[in-house]
Amino acid sequence: MVRVWRVPFGYLILIWRARTRWVAYKPATDLRRIYETLARKGVPKNLTRAALVRANPAEARAYNLD
Asked: What is the mean pLDDT of the chain?
């Protein structure tokens, strides 16, 4: 499960997998950097894209993440 929420100074990322729990506060200004961070952590692209579209649909379309 991957969830991304918009907070006042960036994005809150929650990744929850079997035996792996990772919570991060990423003070990034755009979803592209969030996407790259999650890719480095090994999160599947389909889960990442769905979470980013829910967090900020307009910006996700701008970066072709939808």
From this structure: 79
pTM of the model: 0.72
Q: Look at residue 13 and tell me if it is in a domain.
A: no
In a domain, 36, yes or no: yes
Does residue 12 lie within any of the structural domains? no
Helices in the chain by DSSP H: which ranges? Answer: 31-40, 45-55, 57-62
Domain residues for the domain of 46 are 28-65
User: Tens digit of pLDDT for each residue in 8-19?
Assistant: 877 877 777 766
Q: Is 64 exposed, middle or buried (0-12, 13-18, 19+ CB in 10 A)?
A: exposed
